[in-house]
Specification:
The complex is a heterodimer of chains A (474) and B (475).
Chain A (H helix, E strand, L loop, with lengths): L3 H10 L4 H19 L2 E4 L1 H16 L11 E5 L26 H8 L3 E6 L33 H8 L5 E6 L5 H7 L2 E4 L19 E6 L2 H11 L29 E5 L8 H16 L3 E5 L7 H16 L17 H12 L2 H14 L5 H24 L2 E5 L15 H5 L6 H6 L2 E9 L5 E8 L4 H14 L4
Chain B lengths: L6 E12 L38 H13 L3 E2 L5 E4 L9 E4 L6 E2 L2 E3 L5 E11 L3 E5 L10 E5 L6 E7 L6 H17 L12 E11 L8 E6 L2 H20 L7 E6 L4 E7 L9 E2 L10 H10 L4 H9 L7 H13 L2 H9 L4 H10 L13 H12 L5 H14 L3 H7 L7 H14 L1 H8 L5 H13 L5 H11 L1
Parallel strand pairs in B: 12-13
Antiparallel strand pairs in B: 1-10, 1-11, 2-5, 3-4, 3-15, 5-7, 6-7, 7-10, 8-9, 11-12, 13-14
Helix pairs in contact in B: 1-4, 2-3, 5-6, 6-8, 7-8, 7-9, 9-10, 12-14, 12-15, 14-15
Classes of the chains: A alpha/beta (474), B alpha+beta (475).
Chain lengths: 474, 475
């Protein structure tokens, strides 16, 4: 499949039509969806309609947008008017969103053709899509393995060449980890850069929507479209969308890059080796590599598994059977709430709701949630100190390449460790990108991770572009 | 039964007031009472998946106005989530303020000279409204329940007093004075019957001088009368319980207006753990000095100050005159009364006409100018209109507007000329020589007889005071 920016260019210049690009995408989805279980819903009629509108704009000689005619997949926690939106949960089965997420409005305004909604771990709680109520998604590079998660469906859509672009959400690594496992570029933006309005909340202080793409330039293109202030999200940053595509070739000459021990220790040898080769590549491009240790990063996982479940326990309270989604009838309201939630939520979601409820409870708040907030503050300070020494940080995205189905489902801690390198960025509210760099076991892709301070997306994309070139991709 | 003399009632009040904003606290839906159920709702106030709150700045303005009126410290504040399951609360948490409220501290001075401390006055969102049909009529045991989310997300300020109130009468006075302040700030319409002001009372009893007793929180107080009755009932209940060797349990109690008693809703052990934590979807609320000054500049005089200003125009007021004064302050008729006083109308007359006539038709005050009110009363005072006629003119002015003199003329309230009145009085005297003789001998009661006769002859056109003047002149 051609890069998104090429498709947009060709559609705008009349070389191809949005409708034919849509048809190509739809054909790929029809051919592969049954095997990989990527899309939970395919909006054939809506996509055709959207494509024809783009073609009409082109025919009228109007600019059709930066994503003119580009087929795009949405993670199923993003609301789109009239489209089933489940967040991978049985409790929202059949719910039709009555409004558009801000990012959905923005991609449509930019000419993108939304093909449908992709599978995900239930309420984004998981790292493999195995917690989805609708069955796991298979990794298109090796169907016996997971695509990562929670944005596993979005990653698989791009990896299986069903769409050139997809939107995911990243609370503790849910864009970067599946990007790494599927050989894609995935970016978690600075907290507040992209509006969360219309994103079904998992952990409100950590969630960010971001792009998944086959290449760095396409990720930059999509991020430019969705970023920028939104008055409907109080935590939205006040600035307009940053200029990213224009800075893709800025390189890393003169930049200082911190190679952080805590961001690769414990990873498979082949992953550690890839990180070191990436450091070499950046040095070759003119960066200075500084070896760093940030011990606070080791505390990230524990703090995250208190803060995220605590917020989730509150965010998911509304799924009570009263107004929408699943309702399991019972004798009175409280019994109906309980029956609905017992049937509607899967085991991992229940585990986290219990964990979060406990962490916030009277008598335990200080020891758990309160303590986690202090760790979070330490994490923010540790990042600040690191960025006084260097411009960007380098590490692994995941401890290993894509793992087999069931390898970690029986041991939640093992699954949680999949996100050990990605979580610190979410806690700090900073930005990070995963970019493919070499391969490992079974020729599967390895992702390396570049981390930067808030609003460093342009620098991160430029550095990722250096690694992309060094890895032999034009 | 009342408390023994060495015992006292201790009350702290939590007053919830809906703020009179155009739109709700976190979305653009209309904030208006009485619409068809579930017509003023959107993804945000229905708590739909993915929706996010955005704070209504006008609600903050009004909360700050309340804080200023209560002499509170207004500071940077944060929002928290109060988590509990309830069907009329769409997110199953309420966005409220917790450890850092917008207004902390302060006090309210009552007309009886007492001062009640204010602990805090914080912002929060209202819930929807449940109606339970059939069966018990309450959430447990009803056949079915309906929920109207029009009220969901309406901005509220909860004003918490210190435990400084010592009687049900003082509680009534506090609530009434606070209501006056809420109306004066423009924060609320103070309509308890529409639920825009709701009160919970924390009641305990103790032997004077002893530490505070265990308190019970009484809910469902929908009028000032309920408030007063419920406190009296609850204090007696607790006193009797202690007297009988029992112990008061900390609990929440429900006031039943029909039965006139409180009953257990839930005990302390059954109370929810609200698991408060910072609302991650909102940012800190930091009102700067300029914002605060802007609110201070728009704040008018508070009821206590206004009451003192009007009170100064009354010498040795009767209880009825003081009642009229309260009504004038309550309903904000200050400008009418002060305008009339400036036109040399007697203050007590102006307050009486405002409290009795204007109060009957508050929805049409726009029809009545301050000048027209003063003119009407001047005509009454000078004898051009009788009291009855003046009242009729006022009601007509309220209903349709216009000029008092035109209305008087169109109603046929043409005052008799003095000459005509004098002739009529002479005729009446001539027709009743015996009564006249007794009157001249000092039987003052007969003045009423002659006024009645003159009124009858003139079909009510004569002014009573003018008739007395004529009689006196001939006596």
């Amino acid at each position: 499949m051609r890069p998104a920016r090429q498709i947009a260019h060709d559609v705008q210049s009349g070389v191809t039509t949005a409708e034919s690009e849509m048809a190509t995408s739809l054909a790929a989805i029809r051919a592969k969806n049954e095997e990989f279980n990527v899309f939970l819903y395919v909006d054939e009629a809506g996509a055709l309609d959207a494509a024809r509108r783009v073609d009409q704009r082109v025919a009228n000689g109007e600019p059709a947008g930066a994503l003119a005619g580009v087929p795009l997949a949405l993670k199923d926690n993003l609301c789109q008017v009239g489209i089933p939106t489940t967040a991978g949960s049985r409790i929202l089965k059949g719910w039709l969103a009555p409004y558009n997420a801000t990012v959905v409005d923005r991609v449509i305004a930019a000419g993108a053709v939304v093909m449908g909604k992709t599978n995900m771990d239930e309420f984004a709680m998981g790292s493999s899509t195995e917690t989805s109520a609708y069955g796991p998604t298979r990794n298109p590079l090796d169907p016996s393995r997971v695509p990562g998660g929670s944005s596993g469906g979005s990653a698989a859509a791009v990896a299986a060449e069903m769409t050139p672009l997809a939107l995911g959400s990243d609370t503790g690594g849910s864009i970067r980890q599946p990007a790494a496992l599927c050989g894609l570029v995935g970016l978690k933006p600075t907290y507040g850069l992209v509006s969360r309005y219309g994103l079904i909340a998992f952990s409100s202080s950590l969630d960010q929507i971001g792009p998944l793409a086959t290449n760095v330039a396409d990720a930059a293109l999509l991020l430019e479209v969705i970023a920028g202030h939104d008055p409907l999200d109080s935590t939205s940053l006040p600035e307009p969308s940053p200029s990213l595509v224009a800075h893709l070739d800025d390189g890393v000459a003169g930049k200082r890059v911190g190679l952080v021990r805590e961001l690769f220790e414990g990873a498979e040898g082949e992953v550690v080796a890839a990180v070191h080769r990436a450091a070499e590549a950046l040095r070759d491009a003119g960066a200075t590599i500084v070896e760093l240790s940030v011990p606070e990063f080791r505390l990230g996982l524990s703090a995250y598994y208190l803060i995220a479940p605590a917020e989730a326990s509150s965010n998911l309270a509304r799924y009570d059977g009263v107004r929408y989604g699943l309702r399991v009838d019972a004798d009175d309201v409280a019994a109906m709430n309980e029956a609905t939630r017992t049937v509607g939520f899967g085991a991992e979601v229940k585990r986290r709701i219990m964990l979060g409820t406990y962490a916030l409870s009277a008598g335990y708040y200080d020891a758990y949630y309160g303590q986690a907030l202090k760790v979070r503050t330490q994490m923010i300070d540790a990042f600040k100190r690191a960025y006084q020494q260097v411009d960007l940080l380098l590490g692994a995205t995941t401890p290993s390449v894509a793992f087999k189905f069931g390898a970690k489902t029986s041991n939640p801690m093992a699954m949680y460790l999949s996100d050990v390198f990605t979580i610190p960025t979410n806690l700090a509210g900073d930005a990070a990108i995963s970019v493919p760099f070499g391969t490992g076991e079974a020729d599967l892709p390895i992702g390396v991770q570049l981390l930067g301070p808030g609003r460093s997306e342009a620098q991160l994309l430029a550095a990722a572009r250096v690694l992309e070139l060094a890895d032999g991709r034009p | 039964m009342t408390l023994a003399p060495e015992w006292e009632t201790v009350v702290g009040l939590e007053v919830h007031t809906e703020l009179k904003t155009m739109t709700k606290m976190f979305c653009g839906c209309a904030n208006a009472f009485g619409a068809e159920p579930n017509t003023q709702v959107c993804p945000v106030c229905l708590g739909l998946p993915g929706s996010l709150p955005v704070l209504n700045v006008r609600a903050v303005d009004l909360a700050m106005a309340i804080g200023l009126a209560l002499h509170s410290t207004i500071a940077s504040s944060t929002f928290h989530r109060k988590n509990y399951f309830y069907p009329d609360m769409p997110k199953d948490y309420q966005i409220s303020q917790y450890d850092l409220p917008i207004n902390s501290g302060g006090y309210l001075d009552l007309p009886d000279g007492s001062r009640v401390s204010i602990e805090r006055a914080h912002l929060e969102e209202d819930t929807g409204k449940s109606t339970h049909l059939g069966g018990s009529g309450r959430i447990h045991g009803a056949d079915r329940s309906l929920v109207d989310y029009n009220r969901s997300g309406v901005p509220l300020v909860e004003i918490v007093s210190g435990p400084d109130i010592r009687s049900s009468a003082q509680a009534h006075l506090y609530a009434s004075e606070l209501r006056g302040i809420l109306i004066a700030t423009g924060a609320s319409d103070g309509r308890m019957e529409e639920g825009s002001m709701r009160i919970d009372a924390n009641v305990s009893v103790r032997k004077i001088g002893q530490p505070l007793g265990t308190r019970c929180e009484v809910k469902n107080l929908n009028s000032l009368r309920s408030l007063q009755r419920a406190i009296d009932f609850e204090a007696s209940r607790q006193f009797e319980l202690i007297n009988a060797g029992g112990v008061v349990r900390q609990e929440t109690r429900h006031w039943d207006e029909g039965l006139g008693e409180t009953s257990t809703m839930r005990t302390k052990e059954e109370a929810d753990d609200y698991r408060y934590f910072r609302e991650p979807d909102l940012v800190d609320l930091v009102p700067d000095g300029a914002w605060l000054e802007r609110i201070r500049d728009t704040l008018g005089a508070m009821p206590a100050e206004r009451r003192a200003a009007l009170r100064a125009h009354l010498t040795n007021p009767s209880p009825a005159q003081l009642d009229a004064l309260d009504v004038v302050i309550d309903l904000g008729f200050d400008d009418y009364v002060l305008g009339a006083i400036a036109a040399n109308v007697d203050a007590a007359l102006a307050m009486a006409r405002a409290a009795n006539e204007l109060a009957t038709d508050v929805d049409h005050l726009a029809n009545l100018t301050s000048d027209a009110f003063a003119t009407t009363l001047t005509m009454e005072q000078s004898g051009q209109l009788s009291a009855t006629q003046a009242k009729t003119v006022l009601l007509e002015l309220l209903a349709h507007g216009g000029e008092p003199r035109d209305i008087a003329r169109s109603k046929g309230y043409e005052q008799l000329t003095s000459a005509a009145l004098g002739d009529t009085v002479s005729e009446v005297i001539a027709q009743h020589p015996d009564e006249w003789a007794r009157y001249r001998d000092g039987d003052d009661k007969l003045a009423q007889f002659f006024i009645g006769q003159v009124m009858s002859v003139t079909k009510g056109q004569a002014n009573g005071k003018a008739v007395i003047a004529e009689l006196t002149a001939r006596r």
